[in-house]
Design goal:
The protein has helices at 15-18, 26-31, 48-61, 73-76, 85-100, 116-120, 129-144, 159-179, 201-206, 208-218, 233-253, 275-285, 290-293, 334-342, 362-381, 424-431, and strands at residues 8-12, 66-70, 104-108, 150-152, 258-264, 267-270, 298-302, 306-310, 313-314, 349-354, 386-392, 411-414, 419-422. By secondary structure, it is an alpha/beta fold. The protein has one domain (8-431): Glycosidases (TIM Barrel), CATH 3.20.20. The termini are close together. InterPro entries: GH, Glyco_hydro_1, Glyco_hydro_1_AS.
């Protein structure tokens, strides 16, 4: 089935994961700590900072018509209240490059990484952060807004709540195992695989005391509240306030820009006796955000797999299920299910801003894309306002605490030379736009 004529079909990246040498960010500092939970530092990543034109041209040549990328706050405002005109010029150039190759730039203003100075003020649990974020948004939109049609304020605004939930689940699991004198969780059932971001939860929990001491040396606080930290209820609301202030700034300057945020959403499927728990999970993951996004032009839907929910919560992956490198179940049908469910309560446009798998077998990525896009096409056929599909990711890149071990990309990168090797999945995704 053909997609609509003006449908955006593209791929996504995040600045810290691809640009390299993001030395003013909180994550750069955390990667280089002695008691880090990162497998390895990002360093020069895949050098997208210098090779963005090559990458955008590869995207365009394959037939894709849109590129979702993020602007790095730590580059734009490396010190509080001090803005870097050179960093702004760089993003001007990236946007211009997109247009040179007929690609629609779809910009995200915050994708997990933040300026290091923000952490010294209390990070994403500080009452001052929404205003700090709004100041940055005002500045960058004054500089770049005239060139843009689509802006995501915050990527996966619900990520910290999800991390907090799996941390609590992990603690309960460990307590139960100690009481039963059991060993570690079975392979493939680790809590790490139930959140849609690369984290090393076990290492984080083991290193808490040592990390607190080192945090004081590096950041001046015992607990670093970065964006993907275990979020409190108060912190969750602060993120929504930051989004609302950012939207206000954008609309005041450029009322025609389409503004929204993105959420990490699972296809939550209740199993026998798990109906009430599944409803609670969906409220936590999506419904309670509705009052804060009702004035948005769109919602960015980000989905990778499903969650099976029993009476006591998350169930292990089904016996014999195909798993990705991230321990997600290979389940591309989840995207269609999530789009249909979200559309029941959110009545703006829906943009698929991330969907994909980490795998070394590109034939499985092709199969995943095919199934996912057929689901998107079915939603459109039934009248749902789905306007885009951005595959995660354009490049094999730095997958946060998992380092470079996870391969999500449509393009492989030999990091010893930074040579690009487009995969068949890139061509296949582009074929949907022909």
């Amino acid at each position: 089935m053909r997609l609509p004529e003006h449908f955006l079909i593209g791929a996504a990246t995040a600045a810290h994961q691809v640009e390299g040498n993001n030395i003013r960010s909180d994550l750069w500092a955390m990667e280089h700590m002695k008691h880090t939970s990162f497998l390895e530092p990002s360093l020069d990543a895949v050098d997208h900072y210098h090779r963005y034109e090559e990458d955008i041209k590869l995207l365009s040549d394959a037939g894709l018509n849109a590129y979702r990328f993020s602007i790095e706050w730590a580059r734009i405002e490396p010190e509080e209240g001090v803005f870097d005109a050179g960093a702004v010029a760089y993003y001007h150039d990236v946007i211009a490059c997109c247009k040179k190759y007929g690609v629609e730039p779809f910009v995200t203003l915050h994708h997990f990484s933040s300026p290091k100075w923000l952490m010294t003020k209390g990070g994403w649990e500080a009452s001052t952060t929404p205003a700090d974020f709004a100041r940055y948004v005002h500045y960058i939109m004054e500089e770049l807004g005239s060139e843009l049609h689509y802006v995501c304020t915050i990527n996966e605004a619900n990520m910290g709540i999800q991390v907090a939930a799996i941390a609590e689940r992990y603690k309960r699991q460990m307590m139960a195992q100690m009481q039963a004198a059991q060993t570690a969780p079975r392979s493939g059932d680790s809590a790490d695989g139930t959140v849609q971001v690369g984290i090393n939860l076990e290492k984080m929990m083991e290193n808490q005391k040592a990390t607190a001491l080192e945090n004081m040396e590096v950041f001046g606080v015992e607990k670093v509240e970065n964006f993907t930290s275990m979020r409190t209820r108060e912190g969750d609301l602060l993120i929504m306030k930051a989004h609302e202030l950012a939207r206000k700034e954008i609309k005041a300057l450029y009322p025609d820009i389409k503004v929204g945020l993105t959420l990490s959403l699972h296809d939550i499927q209740p199993q026998a006796g798990g109906e009430a728990r599944a409803a609670s999970e969906w409220d936590e993951e999506f419904l309670h955000y509705l009052p804060y996004i009702k004035e948005d032009d769109f919602l960015g839907v980000q989905n990778y797999t499903r969650s099976l929910i029993g009476p006591d919560g998350q169930l292990p992956n089904p016996e014999g299920a195909e798993l990705t490198q991230m321990n997600y179940e290979f389940y591309p049908e989840a995207l269609e299910h999530v789009l249909r469910r979200v559309a029941e309560d959110f009545h703006g446009d829906l943009y698929v801003t991330e969907n994909g798998i980490a795998t070394s077998d590109d034939t499985r990525r092709v199969a995943f894309i095919d199934a996912a896009l057929n689901g998107v096409a079915a939603c459109i056929r039934d009248g749902l306002p789905v306007k885009s599909y951005f595959h995660w990711s354009l490049l094999d890149n730095f997958e946060w605490q998992k380092g470079y071990s996870m391969t999500f990309g449509l393009i492989a990168v030999d990091r010893s030379t930074q040579t690009r090797h487009p995969k068949e999945s890139l061509r296949f995704l582009g074929s949907w736009n022909r």
